[in-house]
Amino acid sequence: MMSTNTRLAKTAGAGVACALALVLHGDVQAADSEVPLAWNVSPMQAGAYREAFETLVPGWAAAAGFNVLTNDYPAMTDLPVRSNAWFAAGSKVLQLETDGEVVSNTLAYATSGDPVSFAGKPVYVDLRIKFDPLVNAPDPELLANSKLALFLTSDAKLVVVHAGGATTNANVLDTNKWYQVTVKLQDGKFDVLLNDVAINTGLSVKQAGVANTLASVNFYGTGLIDELYVSHGNPAYAVPGPTTAVPSLPAPETLSDEELTRVNAWLDAGNVADLTDLSQTQVNTAYLLNSLSGTAVDPVESYTFGISKIKLVSPTQLNVTVSLTVETTPKAGKINGRIQLQGKKTAEDTWTLLDGAVTPNFIDFTDGSATYSFTIPAGGYAFFQPLIVP
User: Fold this and answer.
1) Distance (Å, rounded) from C-alpha 109 to C-alpha 86?
2) I need a surface site. Which of 45, 69, 112, 315 has the fewest CB within 10 A?
3) What CA–CA distance (Å, rounded) separates 31 from 133?
4) Cβ distance 386 to 324 under 8 Å?
5) DSSP secondary structure letter of residue 33
6) What CA–CA distance (Å, rounded) separates 289 from 294?
7) Whole-angstrom Cα distance, residue 2 to residue 215?
């Protein structure tokens, strides 16, 4: 194993610190950890790099500081329930004490040795963290070569460092609790999710190293981490994922890799064996509306979807109630889609997708109705129209 570490002077009082930084290095020929290039595979667990911290401290984590395994796992509560179990049941976690150094886990594709690319498709970095707050902000040298960084302030607020500076989230985290932290990178942008709920979206990565590539995940300070995961596949899939052969979608297959995996996982969970008589459009629509009876996909001949109630809370905040009827039945239960708002300023304008005005999770309907609060861009938008998107 080979680890690329940078010696940093300790920040005064920073003995209680835990910062997660994703850092790029130019040379990853001797990567510590290999990330699968193919992730839409069976079983899905084979499509991710996973570190459970159950037997030994990994070589990259043992290269600096005083990092040890500890039995703190039973203290984890209120974390997202994921039926797609990427990790087996565990009892140990990694206790970080990096002693003023950066502990670096270099990453590369198993087949080529190239750094992991998030150009055109997402890369997810996911892990469980029990944060320690920083007394002072991280040393600038730590952040200089990073794509992004996450850390907790002395008053326990999560800071996200990005190309535009640093964003401090208003909510105070409980440092006695564990959190599921997910970073999704794609095409120069990234989102941060806490317990599978987006708290920052569309932030720009810092221009360090080669664009749209991830070469390492780095840790600095103190805290507890577990179940480190890096993959092109979303760790929060709500179904087990393909474990057996799934039926091929009718041609042409125009879905993205991630959309295709979601559809395949849905078909697999329903034990759907045959799609011979369905078009791709019918399969996609049935998936988004979650139209499945037993082991058969219900082709949706018609559905009505629109806004039934809207309230302008502020120039940038809307409360929107949408209605959905499939065939002649008001929708009940969760769909496999999110709601994205389009907007226009005058009736003559063309519809524009409103950046960020999309639900972070799939929507659950009750008697054909669902309500959500949207943040909309400033600029005088007066007309709105919803879409169901993957």
Assistant:
1) 19
2) 112
3) 30
4) no
5) E
6) 15
7) 13
| CATH class label, 303-389 | mainly beta
Average pLDDT, the chain: 80
- CATH 2.60.120.200 residue window(s) in the chain: 18-231
Instruction: Encode 193-227 in three state secondary structure.
Output: EECCEEEEEEEECCCCCCCCEECEEEEEEEEEEEE
Mean pLDDT in residue range 204-233:
89
Q: In angstroms, rounded to a whole number, what is the distance separating the alpha carbons of residues 89 and 81? A: 13
Largest CA distance in the chain: 68
Q: Which fold has domain 18-231?
A: Jelly Rolls (2.60.120)
Omega cis (within 30) before 43: yes
The strand pairing partners of 203, in sequence order, are 190
The radius of gyration computed from the CA coordinates of the chain, to the nearest angstrom, equals 22
Return the structure tokens found at 19: 């910062």
**Model pTM?**
0.68
Residue with tokens 């990567």: 31
Residue span(s) of the chain under CATH 2.60.40 come to: 303-389
Tokens read off for 206: 């810092």
> Could you report the per-residue pLDDT of 86-115, keeping only the tens digit for each?
888 889 999 999 888 888 899 999 888 888
Alpha-carbon distance of 381 to 98, in angstroms, equals: 49
The Cα angle at residue 354 between residues 255 and 180, in degrees rounded to 5: 70
Site of tokens 């039973």: 74
Confidence of residue 13 (pLDDT cuts 50, 70, 90): very low
**Amino acid sitting at position 287:** Y
Q: State residue 259 phi and psi, 5-degree precision.
A: -60, -40
Query: In this model, does residue 387 exceed pLDDT 80?
Result: yes
- Interior/surface letters 293-302, b for 16+ CB within 10 angstroms, e for the rest: eeeebbebee
Which helix (H) or strand (E) segment holds residue 213: the answer is: strand 213-214
DSSP conformational letter for 126: E
